[in-house]
Amino acid sequence: MSQDLLASLEYIEKEKGITKEVLLDALRHALISACRKGSPEKGDAFDVQIDPKTFRITMFLDGKEIHDPRFGRIAAQTAKQVIIQKIREAERESIFEEYSHKQGDIVSGSVHRIESKAIIVDFGKTEGILPAREQSPLDSFRQGNVVRAYVMEVKKTSKGPEVILSRTHPDLVTQFFEMEVPEIHDGLVKVKAVAREAGSRTKIAVTSSDEKIDSVGSCVGVRGQRVKSIVRELGGEKIDIIRYSDDIETYIKNAMAPAELKKITLNPDRQSAEILVEDDQLSLAIGKKGQNVRLASKLIGWELDVRSATQKIPLGALDGVGEKTEEILKEAGIQGLRELLKKTVEELSEIPGIGLKTAEKILASAKEAATKKNAKNKVVESAVPAEVIEAGAAEEETEEKAPDAEKGREEAGG
Q: Comparing 42 with 190, which gets the higher pLDDT?
């Protein structure tokens, strides 16, 4: 083998990441193709062997060595095309293998171009695709910007490997914490679960294998620097760091912070829990548009039903509601104060067995009971609290004025 050819193979191996074995195999097939092109009547009678140590090329025809092979122009072009094709295939396979091992990790690249809202990220050897559906609402990238994204999938296509990226995947947050928090990287602190609504809020549950190491404090960092760094990377997305507990009741309390819970009734068989809170904690527990309880439920893996203390007042405790009337109300779908306060006097009086005067008496008693329970709870004083409760719509002011969270929770970014 000539020194020029050997140098070329070494260059390709270094620059393209293709092994010499693959390159020599490509060269072997190229030379065989060239022989067949030059003497098509001989067909499969040609063979080529390349010594992997000395790189000496030996050609055979019908099993006999050819000492002075000659190649025409067409044969030489064929050999070149075969080598190029083999190298291209080997390069694609090398890139596929490299990025397949990066699946589930974070990679960095620069924005090359934007096509139909999808961001094409340049990695040097190949490109990645960040589809519009996998972009956070807080993301705003321009050409040339550096992008750090989660490798969600690597697929083989006719054009080469296709690397699908994500900025909304929950594991993106997990990976950022592993990069930012040495205790997680070293296995001293573990991420147990993540619940995320990209662009808005994430809850992440952590625990420590060493009682001397504070799992939450490790993730927060001195003056919150570690978690703030991740929040900046996510464009300002809020992060709640939750202390994990094997005790499900404690875990629920931590996950629902900053709301203070009055009582938790567990149903392990159904993996559900009914949470009772004081009326002034209801909006905080549910969160804006139901986000707090929804994320807590995802984090824990249990269905969480949040109700206020007022909603737990039994119907039989109201004036005008005897045993028979209570049964009538429940048959009509009114199980408690929550459903009752949705009704107007007219709607209530239309229920068979309940007249107009009885309806007026029941609703007056229901409002009075709600007011006594918490005079400050304007939600329950009105006739439309249930709609607000079901939507989980709490003003952001409520969150901002909320009491400090318990030790098991730290919030960043808001």
A: 190
